Every structure is written in C-alpha cells, then in structure tokens.
Amino acid sequence: MMSAVASRFAQTLLLIFGVSVLAFLFIDLAPGTYLEDMRLNPQISPRTLAALRTEYGLDRPLAVRYAIWLRSVARGEFGFSFAYNSPVWPLLKTRAWNTLILTVTAMMCSWLIAIPAGILAAARVDRWQDRISAVSTTFLLATPDVLVGLALLAFALRTRWLPSGGMHTLASTEMGMLAYMKDLLLHLVLPVMALTLGALPLLVRHVRSAMLEVLTSPFVLATRSHGISRARILFRHALPAAANPLISLLGVSIGTLLSGSLLIEVIMSWPGVGPMLLQAVLERDPYIVIAAIMFSTLLLIAGNLLADALLYLVDPRIRRTEP
Amino acid sequence: MIKNPKLWLSAVALALIHLLVIGAGFFAPYDPTEQNRDLSMAPPMRIHFVDSRGHLNRPFVCPWVAEGQRTGPSGYVEDCSKVSALRLLVRRQPVRNGKTMLASLHLFGVDTPARIFLMGTDDYGRDLLSRLLYGGQTSLGAGLLAAGLSLSLGLLLGCVAGYFGSWTDDVIMRGAELFMALPWIYLLFAVRAFLPLHLGARQAFLLLIGVIGLTGWARPARLIRGVVLVARQRGYVLAARGFGASSASIVLRHILPEVSSVALTQAALLVPQYILAEVTFSFLGLGVGEPAPSWGNMLASLQTYSVLEGHWWMFASGLALVPIFLLFYWFADSLQGRLQVLGLSR
User: Fold this and answer.
1) pTM summary value
2) Over chain A (323 residues), what is each successive 10-residue block's mean pLDDT?
3) At what angle do helices B316-342 and B256-283 cross, to 10 degrees?
4) Could you tell me if A237 and A228 are in contact, meaning their C-beta atoms sit under 8 angstroms apart?
5) B129-345 CATH, one of 1.10.3720.10, 1.10.260.40, 1.10.730.10, 1.10.10.60
C-alpha cells in the first residue's frame, strides 16, 4: 500500500517536471524574444530591463533559465510577470481561486444532474425517457461551447434577469457578507450553466452505459427476485456497483471542464486564469503562460489523484487486490 | 439494398456540405471581403413572392434603406418601391481592393446596383452568406487537415510503439502521457503562446493546422497502439514473420488494414474537435485574422455587447457548426457500430 502510494507520488512529480520542461522548450523554440518587445515598452526603464535580464538570465542558455525559474518556484514566486511588473504567484493566486470557484461549482452541478438523468435513462432503456435523453445529449454534444456561452449571454442581456459577465458588481466591496454571497451566486449562474451544459452530455452517457452494464448483470436479477423495490435496487445496489468507471471519469471531467472554462471565462469576463492566459499570450508574458499551464496540469493531476483515492475508499474490490 | 442508411446518409450529407464550401466561388453571391459601408449590420433580406398589388410574382427582394443614423435591426426598413428580381446563374465582376476582377459565374444574384444579403451583413457591410461559405473553407479545411496530420502522426507512432514494443513503446507512451497530462486547450495555448502573433491569413491557417495536428497525436496513438498489440499476435502475422517477411511489410500489409477502420472512426471524432479548435482560436484572435473569413473570427464581433444583443444573424457561423458536428458524430457512431459487428472494437 505505502509503496504504491510512493510510486504514484514519484510518477506525479516526474510528470509535473516533464510538463514544466516541455513548457520551457516551447519558449526556447519561439522566434524572437519578448525582450525586444519590452525594449519598446516606455514603461520599463533600461536599468530595470538590465536588472531583470541578469536576474532571470534571459539571454543565458535554457538550462540556466530553467534552474533560475526552479529557484523562484522554491521562493514561491513562480517567475516574474513583465507586463504586471510583479512576481507571478500573487497574480495567479486570486485568478486560480476564481477559476476553482467556477469549475468546482460547475462540476458539482453537472454531476448532480448527470447521475439521476443517466440512471433514469438506464432504468427506462429504449422508452421515451431514454430517447429524450439520447436526443438531447447528442444535440448538446454537437453544440460548441462558444455558441452556448454567447447565447446565454445574449439571453441575459435581453432579459436583464441576470448580470451579464464579471464576477462582482462594482459596489460589492461595500456589501455585507450575505449580500456579497448573493451577488457572487447571481454572477455564477451563467458561466456555471454554460460549463454544465458543455460537460453534461458526456457524463450522462457514461452514467447510463455504466448503469446499463450493471442492471443486466445476474446479481441485479437476484435482488429483483428477492422482491426488493426498484428504487432500492437502483440506488442501493446498482449505483455503487456502477461507481467504479464513473469515479475514474470524475478525474477526467476536471480536464474537460478546465478546457471549457477557459473560453467561457473569456466570453463572460470571469476574472479567472483563462483571460489572464489569453492576455499573457497576446502580451508575450512567458512566465504567466508557464504558471497558468502548470496550474491547469496540477488541477488535472489532483483530480485524477482524488479519483484514485475515492476509488480506493468506495470499491472494496480494489482494496482486496492490494497486497 | 443499403445496409446501413445512417452511415450513408451522414456521409452523403457531409460530402454535400463540403462541396458547397469548396464551390464557394460559385454558390456565394459576393466576394467575402467586399464591403458595403452604407449597409453595415443589415438584417437578412426576405424573399418575396407577392408584390404590392397582391399578384404572384417571380421571387424578388426589397433593398434595405437606412432609417436615420441608427444601424441594426431597427435601423433599416424595407423599401419595396424599387424591387429587384432574383436571378439564377448571373455573371458578376467582383471588386477586390478597389480593383475590378474578372467576371465569374454565381448561382444567384440581383442586377447591380441592387444587392442581395440573404443572411444579412456584418459590421463592414460584408455579405454574411458569402463569408459563411468562404469561411467554411478555412474552418472545415483546418479541421480536416489537422485531423489528417495528427492521425498520420498517431498511426506512425502507435504502430511503431505497438509493433516494436520494449523501450520504444515505453518512450512513446510516456511522451503521450505527458501530452495528455495537460488540458488540451491549455496545451494549444502553450504552443501558440510562443509563435508569432500577427500573421497573414494563409500563414495563420497553416500554423494552426500544424499546432493542432502536432499536439493532438497522443490519443489516436494510444488507441492505435492497442489495436496493433492485438493484431501483432494474430496467426497470419506470426505466419508472415515465420516466412521471413520484413517488419515494414508486415506492418504495411497485415497490420495497417486492421488498424485502418479504427483510425477512420477516430478521424470522424477528431475532425469536429479540431474544427472547434480553429474556431476557438480565431474567435479569441489567435488564429486566422480579418479580413479573411473563418467561422471563428466571424463570431468574434459578438464579443461586443451591443452586437450580441440585437444582431442575431451574426450567430450564423456558430449555428452552422451544430448540424455539421451532428453529422460527424452520426458518421462516427455508425462506423463504430460497424466495427463492433466486425469484432474489431474494444
């Protein structure tokens, strides 16, 4: 058990290391340097430029720059943003928090809808409930995130029922705790809805197929012949047995949600990592790009680790095979 | 007669759509960059059949007339005092950058100086239908070519990893895991971040295909490797090896045919994903830029709230994606079903 955890941990560290090296390689392949862009920027004096250059070794070889970056990670700075003239971490911190609020809420919403919907479709296979769910998931799957996001935003603008974009209203800093939360929740509705609609079709389909597989197995027939009620069979016996592939999916779904949230954040001007990454790409701010990529990788890895841990807790079959 | 109608219907429909887009020069009434500054953001025109006296007539359109200073849905009114009949197969001399070009044949049009905008116009007064058709060349083309690129890379690496095994397999599959450890859009951003920002339309198009194609190889490679691993153990492959066939000929003659149907299904799933990648990038201003049309940069003007609120026809290129994606999914789905019948799917 301990050795399995240790090897898993080592693997994860290696993966993170690999991603960061990959990110640095991409910078090195870039034609031209951001230093030239900076020289044209009147807000950066030649002296700071020289200081930055020596501090971050910008004209030194790749390995040296990588070592310098590692040292700044150890200091908790994660490199330096040339556009903001500040270490990356304080910038990333608030953005990452906002993205987490959005994606975690969206993930909970999509799973809370997907599980009952998938169970319903599986329990009523080939009846109208299943048909409706099949048709609607296919259409949702074919509808691009951009379109969903823009359509929801247009709806909000037309009806004025919901705030259109952003995370807070301007006066939110003067509100009390309760009003502040309410304001945040209202702003969350649209982006969460867009992300949920994007993640839902795949989840519903997986829940349905996992449940179908269990529902056709002999032990379910046995429970039915014992006269156990249908609802109890579905939720008490079938769902836990079907949980295994679904928990693995939980880890993967974080990745798709993150990819989706990048675009939705930009469309709905949610102050998350997505808009910051886009701006950094447009302004050629390399360390922010690297930090944003590392953040997304870490979140994806954390999701997969969480899924593994859950699997271990939920599924007795896995615990038994462990020596 | 036809065993699998869903497969054939979706294939034929997709072929027709691609034909429409490839033949944009004929099907589109105007050049995609031809501007009409006096008619910016004009709504789609209606085709009338009945004239003002109530008589049935050949189809005609009424021109938009600007009402006051405003533009937008309420800024234009139909002026049916001077109608122009819809004509089929017209010759037109397009104007590009102020120069008159050679006359070309178009499916339909109206006599100049009248103009016809069946899908409305954008902020420069460019015909949206023409931009949609020409933009399809960019977006659908990028999807297809990028899928071709990443699939060939995936085929190559998957076959090599699956067939040769041992350390080659380890190296390639660890690499694939590295590429899949990143959320895909972030990976694309990472690569795009360090490439030149301001590019011509053609370069940007090729660059996007390269970036999307080269970062997407991991998933198809993994799938194909799995199939090759099974195929390698088949009797006829062992027999061929026993007869002294070279590795290259075994892979090409015996293993590739078995892989091809899985690869085709994978392609049908990859193309819509890559079309969406192009659309997303051009939408965010990192892909194909104005004035060249792409379904992504056509949506970009919707980022302005005033456009988003009142100009519903600007959604056209986004809405066009939905039926195309549906067709691709149906196509992939029926291919997948065929594979299961043949016993080739996992």
Assistant:
1) 0.87
2) 77 84 75 61 70 68 80 80 80 90 92 91 87 90 90 86 75 74 85 92 90 88 86 84 84 81 89 88 82 86 84 76 51
3) 160
4) yes
5) 1.10.3720.10
Q: What is the ipTM of this complex?
A: 0.84
Q: Give the Cα separation of A26 and A21 in Å (integer).
A: 9
Cβ of residue B284 closer than 8 Å to a chain A Cβ: yes
Query: By percentage, how much of chain B surpasses pLDDT 70?
Result: 93
Q: How far apart are CA A252 and CA B198, in angstroms?
A: 34
Q: What is the dihedral of CA B313, B315, B320, B321, to 10 degrees?
A: 180
Token pair recorded at residue B106: 């178009």
User: Mind telling me how many Å the CA of B279 is from chain A's nearest CA?
Assistant: 9
Closest CA to B230 of B242, B238, B241, B239: B238
Core vs surface per residue B208-221: b (16+ CB within 10 A) or e: bbebbbebbbbbbb
Beta carbon pairs, A and B, within 8 Å = 131
The domain spans of chain B are: 129-345
**CB A215, CB A277: distance < 8 Å:** no
**Window B:171-190, CB contacts with A under 8 Å:** 177-178, 181-187, 189-190
- The dihedrals phi and psi of B121, each to the nearest 5 degrees, come to -130, 165
> Chain A contact for B276, CB < 8 A?
yes
**Token pair listed for A78:** 């994660």
Contact status, residue B325 vs residue B171, Cβ threshold 8 Å: no
The tokens of A212 are what? 């179908």
User: Nearest Cβ partner of A293 from B182, B322, B325?
Assistant: B182
Summarised one tens digit per residue, pLDDT across range B155-204 is 999 999 988 888 888 889 888 888 887 777 888 887 787 777 777 888 88
Q: Could you tell me if A122 and A215 are in contact, meaning their C-beta atoms sit under 8 angstroms apart?
A: yes
Q: How far is CA A160 from CA A156, A164, A321, B304, B305, in A?
A: 5, 8, 56, 16, 13
